[in-house]
Design a protein that fits this description.
single chain; 293 residues; alpha/beta; 8-stranded parallel β-barrel; 11 helices; binds 3-methyl-2-oxobutanoic acid
């Protein structure tokens, strides 16, 4: 039996409407903002190694996040709190290498881990420099008002920042578990104030995790210069992010309710990633009716 001839256009075989890497324009910050202004949904997926990052890029994912979720899905930790800056550097460098080798176009975001930006804005700059020199285009950090000064400091020094509000996994112990945030009027008001402060400080993407759909939709329409990327935050955000292992249905823990297993019905991983991209772009994922909040 002969094996199928690989499609010369991509090293990963034929993918429906996604252009070959050489034909796609690199994703930049202005392009992400343009997509948002045009109403095109932004797709983001986590990846932690060279191969999966390149496959995600070939499937048309706009942004690859090397998330500190790697502590749970790669290292077997019970939370992201134990992830170190050196571990993040290693994975960002691996992903960046994989993206370069495959002439990828995705925007690469590196997560600053717990303890790497909490002490001072100078410490945050040193940590961000480690991830940027490993190949990240942008860093992500979690938290509300207290991070605004740090965000401004990094942005002023040429480091694009993605903020992260709602359920912030690095503070899971303080939050009392992986729970929906912003459900009460008081907590929703606080979240809105924090989001505006982060936009004003120069954050150019904002992850909203496990936030009521109505609240994230409202924030999305208010934050004109900072597209929101939802995870368990309904369909009204400017884009979506999922943890790779969750959307491939291989999460060893409890699958969050908002996750869709894109492997169901897909012949392979490339096609599952492509289905995710298509579903986000055409607005069929997520489905607000499946939200309990
Ligand atoms: O670490 C991560 O993967 C994340 C996403 C869940 C947004 O922060």
């Amino acid at each position: 039996m002969t094996s199928p001839t690989p499609d010369p256009a991509t090293p990963y075989g034929t993918l429906p409407p996604t252009a070959a890497p050489a034909l796609r324009k690199p994703i930049s910050l202005p392009r992400l903002l343009e997509m948002h202004a045009r109403g095109e949904k932004i797709t983001m997926l986590t990846a932690y190694d060279a191969t999966f990052a390149a496959v995600a890029d070939a499937a048309g994912v706009d942004c690859i996040l090397v998330g500190d979720s790697l502590g749970m899905v790669c290292q077997g930790l019970s939370s992201t709190v134990g992830v170190t800056l050196e571990t993040m550097r290693y994975h960002v460098e691996s992903v960046a290498r994989g993206l370069r080798r495959s002439q990828a176009t995705a925007w690469l975001i590196g997560d600053l881990p717990f303890g790497a930006y909490h002490e001072s804005k100078e410490q945050a700059l040193r940590s961000a420099a480690v991830l940027m020199q490993a190949g990240a285009h942008m860093v992500k950090l979690e938290g509300g008002g207290w991070t605004a000064e740090t965000v401004r400091f990094l942005v002023e020094r040429g480091i694009p920042v993605c903020a992260h509000l709602g359920l912030t996994p690095q503070t899971v112990h303080a939050l009392g578990g992986y729970r929906v945030q912003g459900k009460t009027a008081e907590s929703a008001t606080l979240l809105k104030l924090q989001a505006h402060a982060l936009q004003d400080a120069g954050a150019t993407l904002l992850v909203l995790e496990m936030v009521p759909a109505a609240l994230s939709a409202e924030l999305t329409s208010e934050l004109l210069h900072c597209p929101t990327i939802g995870i368990g935050a309904g369909s009204g955000t400017a884009g979506q992010v999922l943890v790779l292992h969750d959307m491939l249905g291989v999460n060893l823990g409890k699958m969050p309710k908002f996750v869709r297993n894109f492997m169901l019905g897909a012949p392979g991983i490339r096609e599952a990633m492509h289905a995710y991209v298509s579903a986000v772009k055409d607005g069929t994922f997520p489905d607000n009716s499946q939200h309990a909040w």
